[in-house]
Amino acid sequence: MLDRIPLEAFRVFDAACRYMNFSRAGRELHITQAAVSRRIQGLEEQLGTKLFTRRGRNLALTPEGDRLAQRVRATLDYLEESLEPFRGEGRETISIAASGSVSHLWLAKQLKDFDNESPSVSVRLLTTDAPSELASEANDLVILYSTGEHPRWNLTLLMKEELVPVASPGFIERHRIDPAAVAPHEIAGLDLIDYERFNAHWISFRQWFARLPDPPKARITPRLSFSTYSLAVDAALRGEGVTLGSVGLIADELASGALVELGSRRLETGYGYHLGMPRYRSLTPGAARLHQHLLAGI
Amino acid sequence: MLDRIPLEAFRVFDAACRYMNFSRAGRELHITQAAVSRRIQGLEEQLGTKLFTRRGRNLALTPEGDRLAQRVRATLDYLEESLEPFRGEGRETISIAASGSVSHLWLAKQLKDFDNESPSVSVRLLTTDAPSELASEANDLVILYSTGEHPRWNLTLLMKEELVPVASPGFIERHRIDPAAVAPHEIAGLDLIDYERFNAHWISFRQWFARLPDPPKARITPRLSFSTYSLAVDAALRGEGVTLGSVGLIADELASGALVELGSRRLETGYGYHLGMPRYRSLTPGAARLHQHLLAGI
DNA sequence: TTAGTTGATGATCTGAGATCATGGAGAGGT
DNA sequence: ACCTCTCCATGATCTCAGATCATCAACTAA
Question: What is the third-level CATH fold of B89-298?
């Protein structure tokens, strides 16, 4: 049915509905009131129903007209939005979603570097721990905590997850700990800092100890627990205890000595942080550049 | 930006993308290949980017072109769909969602009557007990088991829920029951027929007895349980035991004597079946007629 | 090499859509 | 009640964005 209707008629109809005034609609569209009237009349003929009622100079939408108006408005909004990438200057906005931990501890710095390299691209970082928001296809790119497979995203490994207890030098000194030689059961007796597990696969201290070849017999009772992983890391940096370090996320802190590994047991979980690009659509130029930048930042 | 682009250009672009051939696109649209070429060229100029690459007679979409093509296709599909209500004959399809019980026991008969009165309207009845499907705004009308409030639907009470034990005359005779005088504890000792509670608010026998002023001490152990309420009613009609009758839903069966109330305790639950019309959009003419018909059928 | 098909383009055409002018219908002010 | 103003509808007429025509270049298939 649409093939027999000039699409411009919808634009005219939309303007007429917004103003409820053919003269003003015509002024917006730079055509005369008579042209608007003709267009509406033509549309009504094609559709076989009245879209407006007229009484003297008063216009009102019929119920059919009202419903169509809503959908036509939505259509034009959607199409207008589709043209955003073609706007002048080519300033492009990319959205990327990542969990709180990877956002705070790794991605924010990478984005800063990227911004310096690509000033014409805006990046919108969605920081969330909700799996559905993380993997939403509304994003141009995502960073997912995963084994590497996802039905809608092509994933490339950024960093494997390796978990190792870490503490600040100050904490280590206060507790007279030999970082290289400390045994798991000794670690279990220290002040442990845990974090919320938003994902059933996440591993916090109980799971970490359980997976050791020789798990300590004592019950694992962390003294502190934070709502986010990066808050837990912050607490460890302040010397408040031992947290589980994901080596890739705290690489800088380990390199600088602000955090020190305890013991020699790094647990590989089989998970990791993966950069995802959409499986069924192409990347915008800016998103492609960000994708490459993040891979290079490993 | 859209205001500077003739909307017909998108229709031409869409056809060109679907065929990847300007000549065939032109044949579909009843214009010449040259006209298609002009349109695409004009669109590319307006957008400031190439949408197709050309090599000899071979066309390919650029990444920008591909993305735009997907959205333009979606736009045209949506608009085409918006015109469905205006198709010839005016045969309108309404969708109404209701739970299994109200569908089978009340609504089906009402729809039959409606169909006789409004042969030009098709009704699609979605029978489901899933709350999210029931209240989905994809429906034109809904029947909800509710207290009467809903954020997205304007609800009108069809029938209050009053629950009373009922059995067939045959069952009553076989068990020498005085229907008017039978006490709750005596009812509790009969063969009870229960049903699945898909909604936490639903009341089956345990809840019914618990709400009596003098609940029987014995444990309520129904002998039969069915997956749907109407199956439970069918079993009671066959004389297999006592079920809880929602008076409004089995009005015909009570009136005809096919089911008989046991005892004098009708429990008003505070819930009821409500006819819902959308809060934020208008009804189609056919849906408005069905709405009126169902209210009249109380 | 030839034939066929497709896209691009200069020159030219054309009719859907526009304007102009006017009349009817209401609303608001006096 | 009358006048003024604004808006929509419409007959008559105009017009230019979009169409066609004709031709050329570039490729593919036989």
Answer: D-Maltodextrin-Binding Protein; domain 2 (3.40.190)
